[in-house]
Amino acid sequence: MAIEIQPERAQPAGRGPGIAAAKRRWRPRPGVPAGLIGAVAGYFLGHWLGNLLGGGYDRSSLADTNDVAIVLGYAFGVLGWLAGLGVFNDLFLMMAGKPAREEPRLLGTQEPGLAKYFRYTLDHKVVGIQYLYGMIAYFLTGGLFAMAIRSELLSPSYHLIGPNQYLMVVGEHGTMMMMMMSSVILGPFGQYFGPLLIGSKRVAFPRLEALGFWLTVPAYVILLSAVLMGGFSTGWTGYEPLATQSTQGEDAYFFAFGLMGISMILAGFNMIVTVINYRAPGMRWSRLPMFVWSMFTVSFLQVLSVPVLVGACYMALEDRTFQTAFFTNQLGGSSFLYEDLFWFFGHPEVYILALPGFGVISEIIAVFCRKPLFGYKVSVAGMLGVGTASFFVWQHHLFDSGINPDMRPLFMLTTEIISIPTGFIFLVAMGTFWKAKIRFSIPMLFALAFYFNFLLGGISGVFLSDVPADTTEHGSFFVMAHFHYTIMGGLIFAFFAGIYYWLPKMTGIKLNERLGKIHFWTMFIFFNSTFLPLFGLGMLGMPRRVFEYARNLETLNDWVSISAFCLGVSILIFVINFVMSMTFWREPEVGNPWRTRSLEWQLPAPPPPDNFRRVPVILAGSYDYGVPDALPVADFNPPPGVIGTAYASASGRAEG
Amino acid sequence: MTDAAAQSSTQVAAQAEDDGFYHESALNAAWTGSRLAIGGLTFLFGCFVFAYFYLRSLNSSRRWHGSGYVHPSVWIGTTIMLLAVISAGVQYFGLERIKAGHKAIWQVDAVIAMALGLAAVGLQVYQLADLPFPPGSSGYSSVFAGFYPVFLTIQLAALLWLEILLARSRFIPAMSFVEQPPTVPGTFTVQRFQASLSAFSTVWNYLALVAVLFWLLFYAL
After folding, report:
1. What is the pLDDT of residues B155-203, one digit of tens each?
2. Is residue A153 included in any domain, yes or no?
3. pTM of the full predicted structure?
4. What are the angstrom distances between the C-alpha of A505 and each of A135, A282, A578, A601?
5. Distance (Å, rounded) from C-alpha A323 to C-alpha B142?
6. B34 in contact with A at a CB cutoff of 8 Å?
7. The domain containing residue A640 runs over which residues?
8. Which residues in chain A are contacts of B33 at CB distance < 8 A?
9. Number of domains comprising chain A
């Protein structure tokens, strides 16, 4: 598909951005509409090619097509989508030896209006906002599937959705939440605030960062498309050999998960390189905000563990399309191979989800306790410790799946050990709360709830790491309650804390406080009312992923379902608050409402296009609340020569 | 953008300092990024190494190789591996020459390295299209047919990087590699090119090592 290169982008460096802007051509401008055209055209092209290549392969009675056609359709559709967005324009320029376009915002200009949010942009703040809206949409979609699950479970036997549809809904819900929500904090807040918090105007690889977001959109659509093909029966883990035996919905699962994996790798890659190389002078590692530490740790997990997931998804798709036998025992493969590869990613994934939450919360508690963060270095050690240890525990997911019994104690031990660095982070929180004059603003309420919820999730996790307990509770609602307490009780509460805390900075508009408090209290109460009884249901033997259950569990299940609906209402209150506050009420908040020391809050709201007028020089850490004679956090207009000296000395060291 | 002519000399100097700071950051980012990419790629290739040894040691249904197994052509496999290694060697030699100020020699070497790399990819495609076994006939055949498409895709991406470097080098005067260009933007351009070239060389050498490793797995062990 021919896409016009934007005139202002195609011109040689050194010419002003407005000169050629008037030269419009008939071809579509890069953006979402062109991307949609490219995606549809690409899908049909790929599908046709797949039928050509794999026409002799088995056809499904459901989709009347072969897997090769579907997978190639997805692949070409994604390429068409990216081409329509203009992702390849700079690549073609560079292949011709021309310089890639410069970010307009670094020249002090910012495109007005909303159109920029529907384009492939190089502005990390725009990408952050794109992620924010995207993640809210993905979360709400996953939440609707959850409502469907609880509706079915109102009755002990079939009454709304049958067994196959139930599995489909459970799979969509689980995958949407575990896959798409991986970037729920790294995406909006990491991309937006990462550079601001380290005092940088730029990110290292803005194109990769933007690509990371725009891959989430096709991943979401493809995952949902599985519904049209009967869904996938494997749940969010995609276990073999069931996956190989499943219908074409499984193709959508593997392709979408792989695509989201690539998005996570790109986001993490950019974050690591940015944090290492783009910190402002004086932003030493010992002054790095905890949120940035969490992003940094999580990014390493993503760059190192997610390639294994991408490899596993690729192998599964190869099995389903080109008839390899990675996971077919009878042909020399092994279904356990998939399980090992999946969980090598899957357990770090748990911390990919959890650690950003700890990062957000660590930022918030110091602000609202008006105290320095207790044990900063201990907290950093905790984050790094959790991240490192997360690579050595994956086999506990296979305790009941045929693991060599001699290996169980080792992985039981490593799993229990991971609670120690997690305890560090809790210790830091307790030390910060100690004798603090806590301000119970909405972000702080969510932060406190985070610790309460995660404590329950964490303790039940230690319990489950013991082989005897795991053997008893494996595959039951007890496990489900455990991970919902850590993921929803942790990550999602932290996400909302971040929204209430940072949205005024991102948009210059604050959310309605009254509705915010109603949202918090209803969410906290009904979250616990929903998931706490699930521990009991699990202990009573209720299995996961089954649409019916013993009649004696009906009362408890009804309680859970009604609580879940109330939880849904509390999320609806947030949505109403968000939409009304952003669209109609628009109460401005341009100052520093939380009286925060950290760098981003020293800037206007929303921050200027180029973030900082000059490269700031960091003078002190951002947690010195209540410290007499604390230095200002940064000099935003350093005297001439300071910045030059900083990078000249660094350059000299490198050359030496 | 503020009109540069209206800025005071202090502001211009400050802007130059900032530009220098981010230029230095970008040079370091090329170094960090290439090493990090190698880390991520190692885990991606690592899952194929894991699959290889896992399936080989498991030998489920006695089908690591299976009955009637025919080995893929050792000659083709060895040629592909050697092409990748020689390509990396030629490119490395060219890198040393451009560091010594000889742009033209590097350009010739880069073209040769690219041709060798493309030949390796082309030959690999040919081998995959003409395998002596069905992809799903055994554990070995699955890992073989699964790994090489991934590897050659990454090789192709790296060759695209080399093509960009070659295209960019056409616009940099040869003299700039001998002595510092007279303007700051000129200096920045050359240094960024050098940083990118150095990062590419690291990744290309790494891919050659991976080619050797998997040759050992598939043909020698």
Report:
1. 999 999 999 999 999 999 999 998 888 888 889 999 999 999 999 999 9
2. yes
3. 0.93
4. 18, 24, 15, 7
5. 9
6. no
7. 615-655
8. 204-205, 269, 273
9. 3
